[in-house]
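Key idea: predict the complex, not the pieces.
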Amino acid sequence: MLRFFHQLGSPKHFYRIAGRWIPWLAAACAALMLIGLYQGMVVAPPDYQQGDSYRIMFIHVPSAWMSLFIYIVMAVAGAIGLIWHMKLAEVIAISSAPIGASFTFLALVTGSIWGKPMWGAWWVWDARLTSELILLFLYLGVMALYSAVEDKRTAARATAILAIVGVVNIPIIHYSVEWWNTLHQGPTVTKFGAPSIDLRMLIPLLVMAVAFKLFYAMVVLMRARVEVLQRERNAQWVRELVDIS
Amino acid sequence: MTLQEFFHMGGYAVYVWSSYAIALVVLVANVVAPILQRRKLFVQLARRQRRERRES
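Result:
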């Protein structure tokens, strides 16, 4: 086990091990998405208030959860890179930013499309929506800062600090529906006691959430591999890899 | 449920299916982007290595 983590710290082994995991993650993710979508789109009944429009939830809610989850991963990885100078943590942090930004974008857009028929408006400046929009800007800020600084190790340190400061936004997003009177509905899954949602809707939602997590794991490894190659471009193992390709 | 009912989504077809279409685009883009980046990097590095060999 210790050897495993030690090897993972070496860019060459990370590249190899990640390459071996990606197809398995892809297969598991695809299988879960098919199950989740079938359960959600076909088996689950229409909502008694929202009709079939609520089926947007099966992508909207997992995307929104991922937007928060990926931000936390990015900030924690950034902090690990900052404190222990672990290169791989820096790579994971910076590879997470565009993926997190795309999930935040997806949560905002699908929420907007769901809001139109339910609230009568594409957008309202309510606390939940506004704080999620700020999250998108935080991701974009991290990406811009990283590409603006020439030296990649300095860039990684600067972006880690930005990411860590931005963490204050995470609890604000999560509790916004309780702290303020929002048009956005309150939590129905993480509520204490029994969730106030039909099991036939809850199960596909959770299946999709796991599928999205696997999707993130897959694409973050794909991006991290490219980032590792870029950083190690002068190393012997990368030269050999290029020669045989 | 008929296939027509399924695609109709109780009258919310435009909203539901456009959401799913956008989600599909975002997911596919996330997979394709690193593949293209990797390919580009390999081409770049291969060119550099050929040049170095010629010079030495």
